[in-house]
């Protein structure tokens, strides 16, 4: 699969969200960070804003739920118009059931892991998912520095995906920029969430194109992608 770029509106101007969504019209996804001030120490937006964004842009919405009780709330984000919904395994009571419900409602089901959460205990769950998100910062705030110590975890996850022959997207979120995206792609990521690297640029659309070009070049040389 070709690398995909998912700009995070957490770094956008919240007073101009519709315009900010259109400013990255060439992106593959629009990443929407939902925070509840419980699972993470920040409060952002919820279902009504997702509904409005879905009407304002043709770019599919990639909703990342950093919230407690995602089993209860995640299906509502599909109904609000999200094309992909990510829940945190640390917060989910029944991750397999939740992934199946998200899929049944018509969205891609994704599971996220905080930096300290290992992938290995969840190997058997991977076939139930469409995407796995490896957090490369502690979730809760934008603009954090990329954690290089997550690169081995990305590699191990890619090895598990390949071992099982899965068509599973591997997303990274946190500190992804022109200086880190190639390392992520080389390690095995193929979906990249970028916040300040896109919305902090003078031309967000050009920033998306530049990041995609970097990811494609790195992927073409990556050992994990050989033969794919």
Structure keywords:
228 residues; alpha/beta; 8-stranded parallel sheet; 8 helices; globular
Task: Compose a concise summary of this entry.
This protein is of the alpha/beta class and 228 residues long. It has helices spanning 17-22, 47-56, 70-79, 95-104, 151-163, 181-187, 196-199, 204-221, and strands spanning 4-7, 30-35, 61-66, 84-88, 108-113, 131-135, 169-173, 191-194.
Can you tell me about this structure?
- The chain is an alpha/beta fold and 228 residues long.
- The protein is built from eight helices and eight strands; from the N terminus they run E-H-E-H-E-H-E-H-E-E-H-E-H-E-H-H.
- It has helices at 17-22, 47-56, 70-79, 95-104, 151-163, 181-187, 196-199, 204-221, and strands spanning 4-7, 30-35, 61-66, 84-88, 108-113, 131-135, 169-173, 191-194.
- Strands 1-8-7-6-5-4-3-2 form an eight-stranded parallel β-sheet.
- Strand 7, helix 6 (181-187) and strand 8 form a beta-alpha-beta unit.
- Helix 6 packs parallel to helix 8 (204-221).
- It is globular.
- The relative contact order is 0.16.
- The model has no long low-confidence stretch (mean pLDDT 95).
């Amino acid at each position: 699969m070709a690398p995909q770029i998912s700009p995070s509106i957490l770094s956008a101007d919240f007073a101009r969200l519709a315009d900010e969504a259109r400013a990255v019209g060439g992106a593959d996804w629009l990443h929407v960070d939902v925070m509840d001030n419980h699972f993470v120490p920040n409060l952002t937006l919820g279902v009504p804003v997702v509904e409005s964004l879905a009407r304002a842009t043709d770019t599919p919405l990639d909703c990342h739920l950093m919230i407690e009780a995602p089993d209860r709330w995640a299906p509502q984000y599909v109904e609000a118009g999200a094309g992909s919904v990510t829940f945190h395994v640390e917060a989910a009571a029944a991750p397999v059931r939740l992934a199946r419900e998200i899929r049944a409602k018509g969205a891609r089901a994704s599971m996220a892991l905080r930096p300290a959460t290992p992938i290995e205990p969840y190997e058997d769950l991977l076939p139930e998912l469409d995407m796995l998100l490896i957090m490369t910062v502690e979730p809760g705030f934008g603009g954090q520095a990329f954690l290089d110590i997550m690169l081995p975890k990305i590699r191990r996850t890619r090895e598990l995906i390949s071992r099982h022959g899965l068509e599973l997207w591997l997303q990274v979120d946190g500190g992804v920029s022109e200086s880190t995206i190639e390392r992520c792609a080389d390690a095995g990521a193929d979906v990249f969430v970028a916040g300040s690297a896109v919305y902090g640029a003078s031309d967000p659309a050009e920033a998306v194109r530049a990041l995609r070009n970097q990811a494609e070049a790195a992927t073409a040389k990556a050992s994990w992608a050989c033969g794919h």
